[in-house]
Write a structure and sequence with these properties.
alpha+beta; BirA Bifunctional Protein, domain 2; 5 helices
Amino acid sequence: MRPSGITTHWDEREREYRGPELRPHFVLATFGVKGSALAAFEGPCRVDTEHLVDWEDRLASDRIEARRMIHFLGEFFGVTLAEGVWIQRLFMSIVGDRLARRLATAGRWSVRREGDDLFVAARGGSEERKLSVSIVTASPVSLLLHAGINIDPAGAPVPAVGLAELGVEAPAFARECLEAFAEEWRGVEWACVKVRPVG
């Protein structure tokens, strides 16, 4: 039987993300949040090659670094890896949509999602810069997600942009994305139980 429900949690304490945090029950042990959950916090990011989960990135000797990010860490129980990738892409779509709404009034920036990555470009400009990193993987007991949204991308190994440059206040944006994700999750659960069977 697949568990239902999702809990979200915003933590005010700053924490560094280095990669080993992507492990079973980190959200429970660190934040006291039980069951399937998505938690978020701010902090620096430095994931060296040996801690990367993505084999494509490991083989290329890549790394992840930023002076400051919003880190979203999710753990979902009773979910397959394929379902986890759909959850990841849904979440990144939510983040991109919420950011695009915030930036629409200024009209200076455009946001584009490609797979599980978000890119931002100045209106009328051709140079896109990377806003996010994201990965999902399976553990023996759960599906794990990390998504990092740059606040200050200093140190990033690729052209990158952050929320500070875009004029977006990070904690409020993080809480907005958490609530939007929870609302979407609840909507999916309702869609699964409200239909009349056919056949």
